[in-house]
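Practice problem 4.
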C-alpha cells in the first residue's frame, strides 16, 4: 500500500525499548520487501516471531501443465470448479507463467486448523460470491461481493466465510502488486485523474492479539511447495504496527469509470500494475457519445500480451454465450474482437452494466489440467459466421 498506516500500540521511536506493563519486552519485527528498499512495516509482538518448533511436511502445489505453449483462444466455465471444504485445497490454478498464477476457488469452510502464508507471491483475491472476514497478523478486513483483497507476500492469514457459497478469483503474483504509477504523484498520493482515491482503499482497523504458547501450524508456501511449520507462539500476537506494507481492500464498485466520445482503450480500466501484468476493472458505465461512435471494442491484437477476462456480472456486450464465472483467454500473437453481430448490435446503446476483471500478462500463459476440465474447446471458432 503506497501510504502510511498505524494500528495498535507502538513506541514513540523505532528500534527502542518497548515494554509491557509488567516490565517484559515486546519484540519488534521489520517486515520489508525488495531487500530494505521496498515498502515495510514495523510490528511489535507479544513473543519472538521466530520460534519454529517443527517442520512437519513439505509437499508440492505446483500447477500441472497441460499445454506449455498455447495459441488457442479458450473459454473456461469457472463455476464448474467444484466447491471443496478446505480453502487451500479449493484453489485451482487454471493459467500460469513464471510471474503469476490465475486461480479459481470455491471454498466452503473457513480456515480453522491452520494459518496460511504465501512467501512466493502477493495475492489479489477477488470476491465474486461470499462474505466474511480476512484475518491477518496485521489486522482484519471484512469482505463482500466485488471486493479485491490485496494480501502482500508474507502476511499470515485466515479466511472466515459466513456461508458455504463462495467463489474467488485469485491472482498470485511473484512481482509486487501496486496501484498504477501514473495515478500517483511524486509523494505517492493518488492524483485527481485517478479512477479511485485513498478513501476507496480500506485499511485494517481491527487487530486480533493473542499472547498464547502452544502448537500453531502455519502452512507456508515457498517455491510452489507448502511447508507445514509448527510455531510455539500464536501468529496473531501483534500489539501494534506502522508502515506501508499491510493488507488492504478495494471494491470494484468504487472504481469510477473513465469514458469518452469514442471508444476508450483498456488502460483506462487499469486498477493494479506489476512489471509483469496489469489488472483492469470493467464496470457499469456510459458508452461513447460521439454521434457515430461504435460502442463495441474494435478488433485488436495483443501481439505481446495474453488477455484473460473474468466475467463477474451484467451483460457482456462484445461476447455471445458468456456468463458470470466464465474466463476467456485470448492469447498473444493473434487478433480477437467482438463476436459476430455484437458490433452492429452495440450501435446506439448508451450504457453497459458489464462487470469484469481483466488480467493482461506480458509473458504467455500455460494452460493447466484443471483448466482443461472446465474448458470449451470450440470457443476459438466462435468468431466464424454460422
Ligand atoms: Fe481484448
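Answer key:
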Amino acid at each position: 500500500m503506497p501510504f502510511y498506516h498505524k494500528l495498535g500500540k507502538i513506541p514513540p521511536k523505532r528500534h527502542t525499548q518497548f515494554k509491557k506493563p509488567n516490565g517484559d519486552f515486546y519484540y519488534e519485527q521489520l517486515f520489508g520487501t525488495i531487500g530494505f528498499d521496498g515498502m515495510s512495516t514495523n510490528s511489535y509482538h507479544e513473543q519472538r516471531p521466530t520460534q519454529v518448533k517443527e517442520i512437519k511436511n513439505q509437499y508440492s502445489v505446483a500447477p500441472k501443465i497441460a499445454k506449455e505453449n498455447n495459441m488457442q483462444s479458450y473459454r473456461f466455465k469457472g463455476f464448474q470448479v467444484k466447491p471443496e471444504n478446505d480453502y487451500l485445497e479449493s484453489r485451482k490454478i487454471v493459467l500460469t507463467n513464471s510471474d503469476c498464477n490465475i486461480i479459481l476457488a470455491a471454498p466452503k469452510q473457513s480456515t480453522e486448523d491452520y494459518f496460511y502464508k504465501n512467501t512466493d507471491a502477493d495475492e489479489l483475491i477477488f470476491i465474486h460470491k461470499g462474505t466474511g472476514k480476512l484475518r491477518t497478523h496485521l489486522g482484519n478486513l471484512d469482505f463482500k461481493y466485488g471486493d479485491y483483497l490485496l494480501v502482500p507476500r508474507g502476511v499470515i492469514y485466515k479466511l472466515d466465510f459466513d456461508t458455504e457459497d463462495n467463489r474467488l478469483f485469485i491472482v498470485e503474483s511473484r512481482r509486487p502488486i501496486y496501484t498504477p504509477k501514473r495515478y500517483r504523484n511524486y509523494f505517492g498520493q493518488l492524483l485527481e485523474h485517478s479512477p479511485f482515491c485513498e478513501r476507496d482503499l480500506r485499511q485494517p482497523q481491527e487487530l486480533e492479539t493473542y499472547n498464547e504458547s502452544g502448537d500453531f501450524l502455519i502452512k507456508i508456501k515457498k517455491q510452489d511447495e507448502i511447508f507445514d511449520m509448527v510455531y510455539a507462539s500464536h501468529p496473531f500476537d501483534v500489539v501494534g504496527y506502522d508502515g506501508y506494507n499491510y493488507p488492504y481492500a478495494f471494491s470494484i464498485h468504487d472504481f469510477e469509470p473513465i469514458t469518452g466520445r469514442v471508444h476508450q482503450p483498456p488502460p483506462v480500466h487499469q486498477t493494479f500494475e506489476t512489471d509483469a501484468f496489469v489488472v483492469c476493472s470493467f464496470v457499469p458505465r456510459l458508452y461513447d457519445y460521439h454521434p457515430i461512435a461504435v460502442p463495441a471494442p474494435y478488433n485488436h491484437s495483443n501481439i505481446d500480451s495474453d488477455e484473460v477476462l473474468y466475467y463477474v456480472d451484467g451483460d457482456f456486450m462484445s461476447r455471445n454465450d458468456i456468463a458470470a464465472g466464465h474466463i476467456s483467454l485470448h492469447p498473444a500473437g493473434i487478433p480477437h474482437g467482438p463476436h459476430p453481430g455484437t458490433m452492429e448490435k452495440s450501435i446506439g446503446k448508451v450504457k453497459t452494466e458489464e462487470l469484469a476483471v481483466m488480467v493482461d500478462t506480458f509473458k504467455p500463459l500455460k494452460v493447466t489440467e484443471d483448466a482443461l476440465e472446465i474448458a470449451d474447446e470450440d470457443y476459438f471458432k466462435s468468431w466464424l459466421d454460422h
